[in-house]
Write a structure and sequence with these properties.
Blueprint (H helix, E strand, L loop, with lengths): L35 E2 L10 H13 L6 H15 L6 H15 L5 H19 L12 E2 L1
Helix pairs in contact: 1-2, 1-4, 2-3, 3-4
């Protein structure tokens, strides 16, 4: 039985966060990565209800087969915010779901630029666990 050539092993193992990196295997590949570094405003300065309303309006302009799922995700976020002590993670989960469906829609890439300010503000309010939403619109800390 022949042993595989060491060059045939194209696996990649990452022991931590690889956000902001290009990881690829193969020969003669070319890749580019474009992120804009941003800073977050203070969480207290964010009007989370207004930011989510703006995101819902912008994402609502996309043509998506998952329109109802996107709307339900925003309704879940709105319901959570109506509680006396809303869970930031519940709001984050709902927004993450909405974005997951919206990313599949035609025109999302063009809309992403107009989402940047709103996503930055929402991520600030949500907290450190939600920095993962920034790369969706080409941002990093």
């Amino acid at each position: 039985m022949s042993q595989p050539n060491d060059r045939s092993n194209r696996s990649v193992s990452i022991g931590g966060d690889a956000t902001g990196n290009v990881i690829q295997t193969g020969d003669h590949n070319v890749a580019s990565l474009q992120f804009t570094q941003t800073t977050l405003p203070s969480p207290e300065s964010v009007d989370i209800k207004a930011e989510l309303a703006s995101l819902r309006e912008l994402l609502g302009q996309l043509q998506s087969e998952d329109r109802k799922k996107i709307d339900r995700a925003f309704e879940d976020a709105h319901d959570e915010l109506a509680k006396s002590e809303p869970s930031r993670d519940e709001v984050g989960d709902a927004l993450d779901r909405a974005i997951k469906y919206a990313k599949k829609a035609e025109g999302f890439a063009e809309t992403a630029a107009s989402l940047k300010g709103h996503i930055t503000n929402v991520v600030s309010w949500l907290g450190d666990n939600w920095h993962k939403l920034l790369p969706v619109v080409g941002l990093t800390l």
